[in-house]
């Protein structure tokens, strides 16, 4: 009986209820979508709390907040999360490229793609290329499209079905329908060019 009383002292109860911001933010994020009427204002509050406590470098939280902002069509807010993160993930970059492409902001999509391939730590993958190629097709940017094609091969995604479908679409829309079927690019046999 004494051991039960010892565990219920006020100091032990208080220490359990006091939490660090990183403990409560995921709980707040998971509850945001339960009430759509308050979801966006609640998300903004959680994001402000994240910034107040200097947690913008927390990769998992940044991913979740960016995804939620994009689900509310708040692409600019998601971009601010990306820009404020010292080490943004390829995931956040991909969802932004996709969002820009789907909303017709093809120039922004390609600028972010360019940032991705030139910034250390951000690697394009099979989720990146279809949306970058879609933006190339929409803008009839054959030169950039060919560069994205080369990157897709260099990064090992040249045989992906969705990448190939986007390539065929891009070449057709840019007037290169007669191009030989998605030839390998010379010198692109390496894992990374």
Automatic annotation (TrEMBL):
The keyword Repeat applies. The lineage of its organism: Eukaryota, Viridiplantae, Streptophyta, Embryophyta, Tracheophyta. PPR repeats lie at residues 89-124. One of its GO terms (molecular function) is RNA binding. InterPro entries: PPR_At4g14850-like_plant (IPR046960), PPR_rpt (IPR002885), TPR-like_helical_dom_sf (IPR011990). PROSITE patterns: PPR. This is Pentatricopeptide repeat-containing protein. PANTHER family: PENTATRICOPEPTIDE REPEAT-CONTAINING PROTEIN, REPEAT-CONTAINING PROTEIN, PUTATIVE-RELATED. NCBIfam families: PPR (TIGR00756). Keywords: Repeat. GO terms for biological process: RNA modification. It comes from the Eukaryota. Coiled coil: none annotated.
